[in-house]
Each structure stands twice: as C-alpha cells, then as structure tokens.
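Protocol step 4 of 5: obtain the predicted structure for the target chain.
Materials: sequence only (see below). No template structures provided, no constraints applied. The aim of this step is simply to have a reference model before the mutagenesis design in step 5. Sequence pasted as it appears in the construct record:
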Amino acid sequence: QVQLVESGGGLVQAGGSLRLSCAASGSIFSINDMGWYRQAPGKQREVVARITSGGSTEYADSVKARFTISRENAKNTVYLQMSSLKPEDTAVYYCYADRITTRVQGASYVRYSSHSDSWGQGTQVTVSS
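Step 4 output (structure tokens):
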C-alpha cells in the first residue's frame, strides 16, 4: 500500500515563509513525476508546482520567484519552499505523484506494482494580512 503524507502547513503572516514536506511510504521502488496542488474554498484544485524524476520543474505563474519545489529521491520526499507568502496563497495544499512503483520480493519471486495518481491528505496553509 502506498501513502503520501504532507506536513509543514500552518498559519503565517503575509511575507512569511513555510516549507511543506511530503513523504511517500511503502515498498517504494520508484516515483515518477511529483507535484504540489492547492485548493481554496469554493475553487477547483490547481497545480502549484511540479517536478520530474530528473529534477525538471514547472511553476504556476502566480507563485514563480516565490516558491521552490525540490525532491530527495533517496527519501521518497518532495518539498515546497514557500516565501513571500500572500493571503491569496491560503489553501489546502496536496502532494501528488503520477506514478509510484512498488517492489515486493519473496523467496522465489519479485513483484512490481504500479500506482497511478496518488494524493496526500492535504495540509492547511493560512496566510493572514
């Protein structure tokens, strides 16, 4: 079973910083692209930043120059460093992985399983003015 768990959310004042972390647990063999999405009340979930297994990154225009996504493949962890936070950044932030491959080895076999579209439970980020 694969699980993504976010941490690091909280309440900060405008101009402050937060660092979100997301760790994948399970018998992880590999993780393809990962990303951070957010959803504000009454709005649809939107992409914030994405990072490939090779480290290439993309950002939403609204967060460019303020947010930085990174990952540590050996730890199966992705991060989102958020600086110069604005009230409009207030949302629940979700970790995402498009494909996670697990590996289980028995006495005489090795089994791989692919898990598509994995999501974390979300972490609340609130920015006060």
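Step 4 remarks: The chain has no helices and twelve strands. The two ends are 41 Å apart (CA to CA).
Proceed to step 5.
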